[in-house]
Amino acid sequence: MRRLSTDLVLAALALAAVILLTILAHGAEPPRVTLAGAAAREGARVEVEARVLDVREGGRARWMELTDGAHLLEAFAPPAPRVERGDLVRAQGIVSRGERAMVLSIDTLQVTLATARVVRSPAELAASPWAFDGARVVVEGEARAGMLVGGGARVGLRGEDLPREGAVVVTGVFRYRENDASFVVWVESWTPRS
Amino acid sequence: MTWALAGAVIGVVASALPGIHVNLLAVALLAWGAGPWGAPFLVAALAASPFGLALSATFLGGPGDDSALSSLPAHALAREGRAREAVALQAWGALLGILLALPLAFLARGLLVPLASALVAGMPWLILAIVVALVFSEPRRFAVHPRWMVVPWPARPMRRRPDLLDPYGLLGEGDAEVQVERVWQVGRLSAAAGKLAALAVLALAGALGLAAFRLGAASPFGWVASPLLPLLAGLFALPSLLALALAAPPRARVAFRPPRAHLGELARAAWPGALASIVLGLAPGVSASHAGLLARPPRTPERALVRLAAVNGGAVVFTLLAWHALGKARSGALVAAQQLAPVPAWPSWAPTPMVLHEAALVVAAALVGLALARGVSASLARLPARPLAAGGLALLVVAVAVFNGGVGLMVLAAAGLVGALPARWGVRRSHAMGVILVPALLRAWGLA
To answer: What b/e string do you get for A76-88 counting C-beta neighbours within 10 Å, with b at 16 or more?
Structure first.
């Protein structure tokens, strides 16, 4: 009987210790770092804020490439929430050594700015086209001869329902071709600018 | 070759010390700006690491992922004063694992590419199967049914009903003093109760793993850290070392010489381990511990040691095979090695001269590792067991403090409590591998 009670006390202590660690793990906020800072903290849990450069869906996980403008970081994320290229995300996870480079294994992901909700100009897209490749974008500019012009830059327009000439707001998927540095918006819908 | 031999020696030392790993060597070499000689150095260190793990499993209770399972029988032998034998069995097991895995690797080369993609797709099911098999193979049967028994109790009688309690007069005529006691006995639910206890250990270790992985690891000195160090040190090494430090000194520690094992017997114990290690070459995210759980459970602790060490030895070969044939570096050492020198490709069935050269390097490093591990174990076994265990405990605590800081020490304490449960309940300690399996299972199924 004495041994049984010792066992129960030990089990209760073990359970309490695990619960305490779980509370601590979910309560503690990891330090927010840059992508370069994250790559230098192998094994640590960190928070990063970055733009999604690329997303590949797997069966039960997603591979993402994140950028903060200066550095890239590969990441694995859970299937939810839905993320698209160009989205700004806040991610928490553990940094580990992958096959090619450091990888962030994300456990908490939050989309802070979905790409399509921000109205952009052709100049913004032209400045870093690789960052928006494949993303749904809302672009405001002057439609002129199959192009959208604004801020001193122009973006090609493709699709079945192209906007009339004049000031318009276009929603569509942005595509960037690296080999000839061309970029276009595949138009899904458009409205004249009021 | 000189660098490779140096790598083998350093590989044994690095794997034997808690918190230090061949991957840390790789990081140090990269930071130091090593030349192309760094690649054979790291490959040899990787090949010799199972021999360092044998030392750590025996004398420190195996605070590393690769030695966690082998630490269970190794430490048990060490407590009997058979540490030298435990190291020798593991060293031979690792060498045989490498030697048996080499021809397997040459045969498996052609199947690797199609099998690898199929296995990656089936990983969630594979991990689930390992978890279910682990729980259902628990042999412990608990005493769960109460039964009333009549026992003689002359000093303090409770009842005096010999006519009812002793109808055949076994306790004597007349005034026999007896007592009715409730005893717990094995019954129909006993096996289920054993499996339930195994599941409880697995679940508790799993919850601990989830919490610790979420906490991450950060060294106060900015060094590379992993939450696995305090977790595995707490679950496997801490209870064993504490028991050894507090127990009576083991017998015949100095005079004991390990019995000479027959090569055929060792090879029979090693081949399932070498075979199970194929999974490491095929699937990413599988550790030697996972592969060790796949190998058929052996009947004796000696055979278990040989088999688990063979998994570690085979793991070296199949990790290198995946590196050459699939271009996948599944070890931090190989990630670093490919940054120091070009990876020798293995594009078809026939091995290239570079691959054959590397196979020879691996065997040479393993022989160095074998000699070194046996030599060091002979010296360590001469030391008194209890101070050695106390020193091991101190080394673990310092390593966790240095590599994982205060949070790591908390994880170590919690893991120590969970790690003490299997021994108290009499279930297998390998259920504590839930610390890795449960998070891996949840991640594979997209649940964490």
So the answer is: bbbeeeebbbbbb
Residue B102 and residue B39 share a domain: yes
Contact B335 A45 (CB under 8 A): no
Provide the residue range defining the domain that includes B148: 144-186
Quote the minimal CA–CA distance from A34 to chain B in Å.
16
Name the one residue in this structure whose structure tokens are 């939450």: B227
- What is this model's ipTM? 0.71
Q: Considering only CA atoms, which of B237, A23, B45, A28 is closest in space to residue B228?
A: B237
pLDDT per residue as tens digits for the range B121-157? 777 888 888 888 888 888 888 888 888 877 766 555 4
Q: At what angle do helices B83-136 and B263-276 cross, to 10 degrees?
A: 40
Query: Into how many domains does chain B fold?
Result: 2
| Rg from Cα positions in chain B | 25
**What's the one-letter identity of residue A64?**
M
Q: Looking at this protein, which amino acid is placed at residue B109?
A: R
Percent with pLDDT over 70 in chain B: 81
Q: What are the pLDDT digits (tens) for B242-295?
A: 877 777 655 544 445 555 667 888 888 888 888 888 876 666 656 666 666 666
Residue A50, token pair as written in the block = 């970055």
Q: Is the pLDDT of residue B67 over 70?
A: no
B137 vs B173, higher pLDDT: B137
- How many angstroms separate the CA of residue B226 from the nearest CA in chain A? 5
Q: How far apart are CA A66 and CA A140, in angstroms?
A: 26
Residue in this structure with the two tokens 């670093």, named with its chain if needed? B336
| Whole-angstrom distance, CA of residue B308 vs CA of residue B74 | 10
Does this model's pTM top 0.80?
no
Beta bridge partners of A49: A90
Distance from CA of A58 to the nearest CA of B (A): 10
Domains, chain A, in order of start with CATH, read: 35-113 (2.40.50.140), 116-192 (2.40.50.140)
Is B120 part of a structural domain of the chain? Answer: no
Q: Best of A99, A102, A105, A109 to disrupt the B interface by mutation (most B CBs within 10 Å)?
A: A99
Residue B405 carries which side chain, given as an amino acid letter?
G
